[in-house]
Amino acid sequence: MISQQNNLHRIYTQKEKTENQNISCLKDDEQKKQERQHLLDDEDMRSFSIQSTPTAIFKKTSILDNDDKQHYLRIGIVQYETRTTDTFLNTMMQEIKEYSEKNGYHYFRGGLNNDLTDICPYYAKVFCVYRYMMENKHKLDYIMFLDSDCFIYDKEVGLETIIRTIFFADDDKKEKEYCLAVTEHPYNKSSHAVNAGHYILKMNEKAFQLMKDWVDLYCPSCWTRHENGRWMCIQPNGQRCLWSGQYYEQGDLHLFLLPTFEQYIYFDTQNKLFANCDTIDFQRQNSLMPYVVHLCSYLKTPEQKKRVLSYYEKQRRK
After folding, report:
1. Rounded mean pLDDT of 220-249?
2. Average pLDDT over residues 129-148
3. Does the domain at residues 2-317 carry the CATH identifier 3.40.50.300?
């Protein structure tokens, strides 16, 4: 973990150097743009589309519009995972699916039908969300993306409650101008780095532009999948990419998109919306606990997995 933290520190404290060094993906040639468009066009997009708009949405707390009339928010939750044999991740995602169904949210899991497997898995998640947005542009109001190693800490709390807190004014009559809600990376708060493993999108034009710009930053020629299935990222200058830096989805979001969309982004600087598992006391449950808990890759130890599954089991007995 210390080594990864050092890598992250190098990434985000040398932002200016990184931006000036390899700008080729921002000033892409036509061939790379065509490659990215091919990745969006070559598969059946209908699998990303909601066939019928959910109706049992936002029943717990309704929102008043400008005419003091109730309306219901249409909410979708998206996850992406191709490791179908991982029992722990499948359990985590099944819990999210059940939570979605209980609350009337549409749930979509990408990766089950080998979709987007020609894209490195880090960016495949971004393409998955973008496709889902485009196919359901007029069917949803908000989308939450969660990595497969995320879980809802208190499933009695509805996502609409979180949306109301972030995106609506105090009187619930006017939505704020945010298009994205993200949390700061827990180990890089000083540089305002973000964690791309969980976020909430409001389905407005700014969000569509942000997601389009994000997929446009993907550099197909930088990524190679080896015979063992593992992906490797090599920068145009021949050097290996730093983990979570430029050419990774998280690094590109931080380096290139946050400066452009900063005024439209809600930053969860106190980790009230999302938090990492190493900061959570599972014995203490109160209003100060986060909505979503994320097990970063280096936190998925057998002990942490056991704690999470034990917590879920206790929740089921209530």
Report:
1. 93
2. 94
3. no
